[in-house]
Description:
Elements: E1 2-11, E2 21-29, E3 33-37, H1 44-51, E4 59-64, E5 67-68, H2 74-80, E6 81-84, H3 96-101, H4 116-128, H5 144-157, E7 162-166, H6 174-189, E8 193-197, H7 201-207, E9 210-215, E10 218-223, H8 225-228, H9 231-238, E11 242-246, E12 252-256
Helix pairs in contact: 4-5
The chain binds adenosine-5'-diphosphate and magnesium ion.
Residues 44-45, 166 line the site of magnesium ion.
Amino acid sequence: MTVFDxxxxxxxxxxxADLALRPVDLSIKAGxxxxxxxxxxxxKSTLLRCLTAQLTPVSGTVSFAGxxxxxxxxxxxAQQLAVVRQNNQAKPALTVRExxxxxxxxxxxxWQAITLADREAVxxxxxxxxxxxxxxxxxxxxxxGQQQRVWLALALAQTPSVIILDxxxxxxxxxxxxxxxxRLKALTQRGVTVIAVLHDLNQVLQFADTVALLAAGTLMxxxxxxxxxxxxxxxxxxxxxxxxxxxxxxxxxxIFH
Length: 257
Ligand code: ADP
Ligand code: MG
């Protein structure tokens, strides 16, 4: 099943001379782990914002689950599509459970009490992210890595079919980076689609099914990380010297100079 279909999607920020995103065609299948990669300013966040309807493309169409994204109500969309917050944004003075429960907003009218389904979805999200023991702790008392797991749990409480993340590993130490990527990988194995901006190309080689490489607003390559992230292309794009090696476990890795 196709989750996203983009035809000729381009974006220009108001008042800007150039397109931040030149016309893009792509199709994202359910259950895939997609990585968006490219230098700073290459249009990764812009493309993500077109997928989440934060930005309306100046041309082309984004279809989500077979329907134009613009025809989805914000509420119906949020039941399918969750955006994981970056942990450098405002932090709420709430308990972990209360933060995760915010993920149920798309299912509730403001006058409604919490339903059994809400409670179950919050409990399941806490369990999936190993947060049960921390559920009643203040969010602010957690480490950055644990807080990032709470943002993921909030997204999971939405019971989405797609999870979108912009640089989710940026503020995490290597332990929590791998912890998050493994959780995302496990979600794709249960049919959830993950679309993430990632900077660590070795993590992309290890975890992603498909990588889309952006350069100055142009989608320059899409395919498996093995195909797309060859040393020559990566070296040219990031203006570094790159070599591809295999680690002892047979996993491809890039070494940069
Ligand atoms: P990336 O996420 O790959 O670093 P972005 O999608 O944020 O890149 O930015 C792509 C281009 O659009 C850049 O040239 C950037 O300067 C420009 N841009 C990003 N956000 C805005 C904005 N709010 N207004 C004007 N230009 C922007
Ligand atoms: Mg960005």
